[in-house]
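fwd from M.: "can u put these together and see what the complex looks like"

so here's what she sent:
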Amino acid sequence: MSENIKIRAPATVANVGAGFDILGFALEGPYDELELSLVNGRGKAKFVSLEGYGKGKLPEDGKNLCAIAVQKVIDRLKIKDKDIEIKLKKGLPSSSGLGSSSASIVGALHGANKLLGKKLNETELLQIGIDCEAVYSGAHADNVAPCLLGGFVLVKSYEPLEIIKLGGVSGLHVSVCHPDFELETKKAREVIPKDVPLKNVIKNQSLLASLIYGIAKDDAALVARSANDYVVEPYRAPLIPGFGDVKKAALAAGAGSCSISGAGPAVFAFSLSQKEAEAVSRAMAGAFGKNGLGSRRYVSGIAKQGVHAI
Amino acid sequence: MSENIKIRAPATVANVGAGFDILGFALEGPYDELELSLVNGRGKAKFVSLEGYGKGKLPEDGKNLCAIAVQKVIDRLKIKDKDIEIKLKKGLPSSSGLGSSSASIVGALHGANKLLGKKLNETELLQIGIDCEAVYSGAHADNVAPCLLGGFVLVKSYEPLEIIKLGGVSGLHVSVCHPDFELETKKAREVIPKDVPLKNVIKNQSLLASLIYGIAKDDAALVARSANDYVVEPYRAPLIPGFGDVKKAALAAGAGSCSISGAGPAVFAFSLSQKEAEAVSRAMAGAFGKNGLGSRRYVSGIAKQGVHAI
């Protein structure tokens, strides 16, 4: 006898311009899909299969983040007589800046918790998610939280962990372009200096405040022109071939603002219509192309719903 | 024949925790009062008299910021056949961190513009106000803007100047304590380094985002616990004798957060009731007292209205 569940966990954009390490949002797509089965056993997470992105690169055993996440839920709930089998279909490439590991982790956590009677609340799942995220990169919540909760999510503080759900923004369209190029989060973190110029911090604070006010007031126009970054982007931009051209192309095609998605190399931009967002994503892909890079592009609204069963 | 107007221009708190140089709000009190008279003449601002704070210290001639401000309005409107006489009653001490010079400037601008037929709009007045502010200290808008517009005001950008009126927050009470001690804005600026630690910037971003979201949602409780500052306060605190004790006392008395008002030395704290705000202000004054400083204390709501005729 077994019980079965299918889960969809969306891509997320972290940092969102000036919101380094504290702000993220969920996309409607792309996403990872997971199938989890509860079977008789001894309290083990069993990784069964991997399809899609990461095949041949990501671990297909207990070291896969999905298995680590499921095992943490099993251990936390002291389950001794059941196993959970995991099939992962990755729609998100790794090291893309689109919250690929968070999607796998959150999908696994959500699914395992549901199969085991929903005994963990959102805060507990979030904390476990951050711990899992820290296994292969630094502990940060700005992908895990929006993947779990949907919409824009603000990390008010890390110690103690406090999250504020800011919700979606109607009429805001996101263009994402992911070049054929892997950028490790670790490397993207190493280039950021410990001290940053205050004058740039002040510019970023203005932008962040405008962004948050725009989200709170459901003002897509204000949000669209507030996702720039003068503090971290200048250090990370040189790691992404053609970034300057891509940003210029996005703005020239009508985007209100454009910045690096998470730690990169994916780049995102905000627009005010689906049509414009399509044009922006084409312009971004074109600019990567001129720099010798193929890319995948996505156009999406802000997902009001985070991870969910399908 | 003469025409006469009386103006009240409120104190303002700039920086507001993490909002260095970009966020400020207006208090209901204290305030400066000005009496302006339009008389026949040759297009000159004439400073007539000064009462209250600053007597014997502030210039009582054309070098007074009120006269400089009125003259700018007269010149801008190319008035050649009238003078404006200015009587200033200062309710705000200079170099206090409560926007004293901004109040005098904005009161003068508002009054002169009204006497001359309201030909300048808010943006024009704001730009002139920033120029006047720059005569004796650096150009910044986070006192001038809330004094002019009321409520909380965000400076979205300086070039070009873009201001967002965020409005008031109901149920939010402000305690302000101003010690008998002058701190020049210039000195308070000099202690801030050009580069600041990114880890503190991240903490401040979380706080600023929470503060702005709280203001946007009229959530006094969230605002009250979000006005802290890890970026600038650590450098300025040593300039204010007893600051650490005052902050501790404010928090112990029930304040949600406490920080330096503008460039100091005044300190402000947020509470959720009038009664609590009274207790907090007494505790702050007590702590300054233990450090050998007398002080004035104020309890006020956020003023929804900025400068106005009375």
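replying to her w this: The domain at 173-301 of chain A is CATH 3.30.70.890 (Alpha-Beta Plaits).
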